[in-house]
Amino acid sequence: MKNSIILLCLTLLVSCKETSKDAQEPQREETTEQKTKSVEPAKKKPLSPHTSAMAMVGDAHIHIDYSSPGVRKRIIFGGLLPYDTVWQAGAHMATWMETNKDLTIDGKELKAGKYGFFVIPNQEEWTIIFNTNWNQHGKDEYDEKDDVLRFKVTPKISEEIQEHLEYKVTNTTDDSGTISLSWEKVLVEFPFEVK
To answer: Would you tell me how many other CB atoms lie within 10 Å of the CB of residue 86?
Structure first.
């Protein structure tokens, strides 16, 4: 009986020591600093994201590739972009358009191919330009002698701001459509027909 009591006391003593040892060990919770390090930093959105506009019009595939700058509370046309100066119609690399079929634009033929798309903005009218040098940074290598098509359009002015430059290719009939660009308060569009 005496041995049983001693054994019971020893068991209780060991058990109490284990419990107090557990109680003394600090909990291993992540600190705020550790939590911050383990979460990947959010990637910054580009100010002028690369994007495209595409459509099938009849059997023509029209593809416009551009970088889309934001207004960011700036005056764009007549401010950031001076009037009567060639602009690459986007940010960074020149905007380009590709068509797999010949098109008629402003009564003139645009052969199937890939073209740099440039504009000359103005308050009264814009000059639209298709140029053979489609692969260039901005307008660094723009040369008027490489133009294959030039024509003028009248801009439409809106009260609402289009924050990011946006191109659209829209079907109007089975073999015709419109190409438009809008940014800030300006919309410029022109029709085309598939030959």
So the answer is: 16
The one-letter amino acid at 36 = T
**Cα dist. 173→31, 86, 157, 181, 192 in Å?**
63, 32, 26, 20, 10
Beta strand residue intervals within 1-79, DSSP E: 50-57, 60-67
Residue that wins the pLDDT comparison between 87 and 25? 87
Distances (CA, A) of 115 to 49, 59, 95: 21, 19, 9
Separation CA 169–CA 190 (nearest Å) = 10
Tell me the sheet residues that pair with 149: 130
Task: Tally the C-alpha atoms within 13 A of residue 102's C-alpha that lie toward its C-beta.
Answer: 7
- Condensed to tens digits (0 to 9), the pLDDT of residues 86-95 reads 999 999 999 9
Phi-psi region of 109 (alpha: psi -120 to 50; beta: other; left: phi over 0): beta
Q: CA 59 to CA 20: how far, in whole Å?
A: 81
What is the rounded average pLDDT for all residues in the chain?
87
The percent helix, strand, coil of the chain (3-state, each to 5) is 15, 45, 35
- Calculate ∠ Cα 125-96-86, nearest 5°: 40
Instruction: Enumerate the domain spans of the chain.
Output: 50-194
